[in-house]
Amino acid sequence: MTRYASPDSLQDSPCSVSIAPPLPLLQAHPQLPHPSVGHWFKRSLDIVGSLIGLSILAIIFVPVAIAIRLDSPGPVFYTQQRCGLLGRCFTIYKFRTMVQGADRLGDQPAPTPVDDQAKDKAKDKANDEAKGKPFNFKRGRDPRVTRVGWFLRKTSLDEFPQFLNVLRGEMSLVGTRPPTLDEVEHYADHHWLRLNVKPGITGEWQVNGRSKIDDFEEIVKLDLRYQALWHPLYDLSLILRTIRAVVFGVGAM
């Protein structure tokens, strides 16, 4: 039997998306309401993997935190509301890699020496919003990224705090790319299918170029491909491919 999420259920959280998805499109993925051996394996892998990741985080936290604070003013961590499984919002954690106030770059000049690039990005954002498309800020070299932030992104160390999200069950080691609330408010009907599974630290987009993919529809296709091909062994394959991508810097930044 197919189960659908009610729009009312998406408004339980104060940070739920303001636009409810069409009922037929936000379908609960079978792995969640009806766990099987394979799906229990996925959650077990998430728990073990997140504990390993948090152990590494405990080792690197002090030097990374010092480097971030010395490089630019602002907090060590970057937090943002993201849309997760069935539209439920959660707070995602990362090491801060951008200048403070970078989220407001579309409305204000960039606090960096490369103002022309910042203006171009602001224009791109305005054009995308006018067309009703989610804006993807990852176009070329982002002027908001700090020097330490560039290194953290290149090595993917900025992602390690997300292991806390995985341990809490808000994310998975492998899944779809976690969308921002701004993205979700511009969703077309087929985009809602991305929310049928938990977002992941890694996934198809991570091993197929990461930030080199700046076409939103291509990201959606990769997310839906993951859902169609999901299997415990496929998760393991993507994890191994992610390690390779990180080691060789494929699509970093």
Secondary structure topology:
Blueprint: H1 37-71, E1 77-83, E2 89-95, H2 115-130, H3 147-155, H4 162-167, E3 172-174, H5 181-185, E4 200-202, H6 204-207, H7 216-229, H8 232-247
Parallel strand pairs: 3-4
Antiparallel strand pairs: 1-2
Counting DSSP E segments of at least 2 residues, the number of strands comes to 4
Could you tell me the strand content as a percent range? 5-15%
**Main sheet attributes: strand count, strand direction, barrel closure:** 2 strands, antiparallel
Poorly predicted segments: 1-19, 23-34, 107-120
Roughly what is the average pLDDT, rounded to an integer? 78
Strand order of the largest sheet: 1-2
- SSE ordering: HEEHHHEHEHHH
Question: How many separate domains?
Answer: 1
Oligomeric form of this entry?
Answer: single chain
The secondary structure category is mainly alpha
Return Rg in Å.
Answer: 18 Å
The first-to-last residue Cα distance is 42 Å
Helix segment tally: 8
**What's the shape?**
globular
**Range of helix content:** 40-55%
Q: Could you describe the 3D structure shown?
A:
Helix 5 links the parallel strand 3 and strand 4 (200-202). The chain has one domain. With 253 residues, the chain is mainly alpha-helical. It has helices at 37-71, 115-130, 147-155, 162-167, 181-185, 204-207, 216-229, 232-247, and strands spanning 77-83, 89-95, 172-174, 200-202.
